Amino acid sequence: MAEQAQFEELARQLSAVGAVKRDLGRILPPDCPTGSAAVLTLLGRHGDMRMSKLAELLAVDMSVTSRHVAHVAARGWIERLPDPADKRSRILRLTPSGLEQLDELSRRTTRLLAERLADWTDDEVGQLIRLMTRLRDSFGDCRSASMRLPAPVFEETTRTPANT
Amino acid sequence: MAEQAQFEELARQLSAVGAVKRDLGRILPPDCPTGSAAVLTLLGRHGDMRMSKLAELLAVDMSVTSRHVAHVAARGWIERLPDPADKRSRILRLTPSGLEQLDELSRRTTRLLAERLADWTDDEVGQLIRLMTRLRDSFGDCRSASMRLPAPVFEETTRTPANT
DNA sequence: TATTGTTATACTCTATAACTATA
DNA sequence: TATAGTTATAGAGTATAACAATA
Q1: Mean pLDDT (whole number) for A60-65
Q2: Sheet holding B78-82, edge to edge
Q3: Nearest DNA or RNA nucleotide to B85 (CA to C1')
Q4: What are the residues whose beta carbons fall under 8 Å from the beta carbon of B46, sequence distance 6 or more?
Q5: Distance, in angstroms, between A129 CA and closest chain B CA?
Q6: 8 Å CB contact between A135 and B17
Q7: How many angstroms separate the CA atoms of A104 and B54, rounded?
Q8: What is the SS3 assignment for B42?
Q9: pTM beyond 0.85
């Protein structure tokens, strides 16, 4: 278990990484903000899926997902097919146009990262990816269906909750 | 130099880490959104500073900084002292009340991270911090006064800009 | 009655531009 | 003329709640 000072520093770095995300967002094509880019990326990586699945992957509320999806659908980058198994549901699928857009996103993002991380080794990038993925898992496991942990216990915590 | 697939994956993870940030934001005290928390944290870590310095550390426009600062100042968590060296400038300083608030932020954040990262080793957390810090530096160096690189060159790029 | 998805509303963060005061 | 900071305005992301259609 890490020390408190480390957790504070990690929180700081998590806050600060927003600047990097904004830099990446700034180079996106017009009409394709970060929310749309995330939708296209996830559809390209995981293939066709329903709204609810996409919302889970995005880790945002389905109302938010609905907005993003409407945006990319309006531009013809995805189509919303009826789900034969459930008429309430809709299957999301990238269109050829969406694939092109996704390629463009990929080119721009890759180019910026290659430029900025020019002095990083392959291994360092891999390490960062691995740790960020694990960080996400450590947080996401209590959201998704996994939930294999019985719920956090605070037996040893005599400290007051300090809930203001 | 890393491969393209790695950069794509890194971009994806950077996008996804937003979920973790939102989780951290949700546990903040009322009246203290993430912007305010960032201001308090940076003042606590770096001591008194001017608006412009804070804006640089936050890596956001000074207009944004001004808003956040106004918010925390209105709640008495910081004071804005005149700068004897420059009447246009203002020195930001945490108040005792601000220090209390900062302690509360620290407790909440640390508690959540300790809970979620319970199975992480001290070394793993340290690695993640180190790599995220370096990532930020790799992006930030072209923003701050450093600017030691002569500017990105695209001599070899025959590819069209594709500025759609 | 519960679930999938949409829409309306509100809040936070951010950037650009116009403006004030001072250097 | 240039810089430090503020304010007005606008755009994007997100969450909650109310709602429609279907399971």
Answers
A1: 98
A2: B49-50, B90-94, B78-82
A3: C23
A4: B53, B57
A5: 6
A6: yes
A7: 35
A8: helix
A9: yes
* Mean pLDDT (whole number) for B94-99: 98
CA angle B132, B134, B136 (to 5 degrees): 70
Question: Tokens in use for B44?
Answer: 């606590």
Within 8 A of B125 by CB-CB distance, chain A residues are 2, 6-7, 10
A54's enclosing H/E stretch is helix A51-58
CB of residue B28 closer than 7 A to nucleic acid strand D?
no
What is the per-residue pLDDT for B1?
59
List bases, strand D, within 7 Å of protein CB. 3-8, 11-18, 21-23
Cβ contact B7–A127 (<8 Å): no
- Residue A40's pLDDT band (cuts 50, 70, 90): very high
Q: What is the pLDDT of residue A3?
A: 83
Residue-level pLDDT at B2: 65
Would you say the C-beta of B20 is within 7 Å of strand D? no
Distance of C1' in D20 from CA in A61, Å = 18
User: Residue A117 corresponds to which tokens in the numbers above?
Assistant: 């991380």
Instruction: Give the Cα separation of B14 and A24 in Å (integer).
Output: 9
Question: CA of B23: which chain A residue's CA is closest?
Answer: A139
CA dist B42 and B56 (Å) reads 11
Whose structure tokens read 């804070």?
B54
Measured between CA atoms, the residue of chain A closest to residue B3 is A122
